[in-house]
Amino acid sequence: MLNPPNVMLQYARFYDLYASGFARDLPVYLDVAAKYAPPLLEIGCGTGRLLRGFAREGHEAVGVDVSRDMLAVARERLGEDGDRVRLAHHDFRARPLSERFHAVLVSLHAFNYLIEIEEQRLFLRHLRRSMASPARVLFDLAVPLSMLRPELSGQWRLIEREVAGTRISVRDRREMLTPLLERRTQYFSVDAAPEAEMVTHRRYVTPASLRDLLAEAGFEHIVWFENYDPSTARAIQLGDRPSGPFMVAAEL
Ligand SMILES: C[S@@+](CC[C@H](N)C(=O)[O-])C[C@H]1O[C@@H](n2cnc3c(N)ncnc32)[C@H](O)[C@@H]1O
């Protein structure tokens, strides 16, 4: 990432507060955790929002992330939930893990941070080698703002919240650099500290493009669903166009 290292840790602390109220995805993952042998593997665990939820429900989990700053905040925040959770710095673009997993979550848009198709291929090839059959993997994928709310694309939005007694604010702009590449610029602040800038890029991955990449990597039974509702899971057709964030699931 292009952002200076000290900003990354500040951002991780901001992100932890910003994302703390979101929990719609947790039941989908708990359902997988109940059906497959432990531990769960979460790729892109960030500051451990989901890992804490898994531990509290009695599940063992391993969380990996490419950001050491996100992992540092996750470590601080796990507290007594930490007994059931292991954290590791790992990049699936580089290599597989030595341990093999039956249940894997590529949670909240982590896959969208892979910008090149070749990075996506390497990630999936190494993921496949880190899984033992029977296994299930779930991807939570982002949809660009320009597809959901075209009138807001390129506009600055101000979000201010109080979380656990701490005031956070962020000015946020998302714009498309190409038909698939979204740039997000955020000026964030915690407790009225001076604003810091964070710029990230995410690639829109259509259901059909992920289906093809998963099939190429050897995955089967590839389906997708919206609204975190797996009861609506269906096979992926070429023209499928999500109306919001969506999930893709596959098996080995
Ligand atoms: C939006 S955050 C989600 C964090 C957490 N899963 C949550 O739900 O709150 C996306 C995370 O994916 C991580 N990430 C991005 N690319 C990654 C990669 N190639 N491998 C592992 N993690 C990655 C980022 O560092 C970031 O922590």
- Which term fits the overall shape? globular
CATH-wise, what's the superfamily of the largest domain?
Vaccinia Virus protein VP39
Radius of gyration: 18 Å
Q: Work out the strand percent.
A: 25-35%
What is the CATH topology descriptor of the largest domain? Rossmann fold
Do you know the CATH architecture of the largest domain? 3-Layer(aba) Sandwich
**Bound ligands:** S-adenosylmethionine
N to C succession of SSEs: HHEHEHEEHEHEEEEHEEE
Main sheet?
Answer: 8 strands, mixed
What do you see in this structure?
By secondary structure, the protein is an alpha/beta fold. It has two domains: 5-143 and 205-251, Vaccinia Virus protein VP39 (Rossmann fold, 3-Layer(aba) Sandwich), CATH 3.40.50.150; 145-202, S-adenosyl-L-methionine-dependent methyltransferases (Single Sheet). Helices cover 28% and strands 33% of the residues. The protein contains seven helices and twelve strands. The chain has helices at residues 5-19, 26-35, 49-56, 68-78, 117-128, 145-148, 207-216; strands at residues 40-43, 61-65, 85-89, 101-106, 131-141, 157-163, 166-176, 181-190, 196-203, 220-226, 234-235, 246-251. The strands form two sheets. An eight-stranded mixed beta sheet has the order 3-2-1-4-5-12-10-11, sandwiched between helices. β6 (157-163) and β7 (166-176) form a beta hairpin. α1 (5-19) packs across α4 (68-78). The chain is globular and about 50 Å long. The two termini are 32 Å apart. The relative contact order is 0.15. The site of S-adenosylmethionine has 20 residues, from α3.
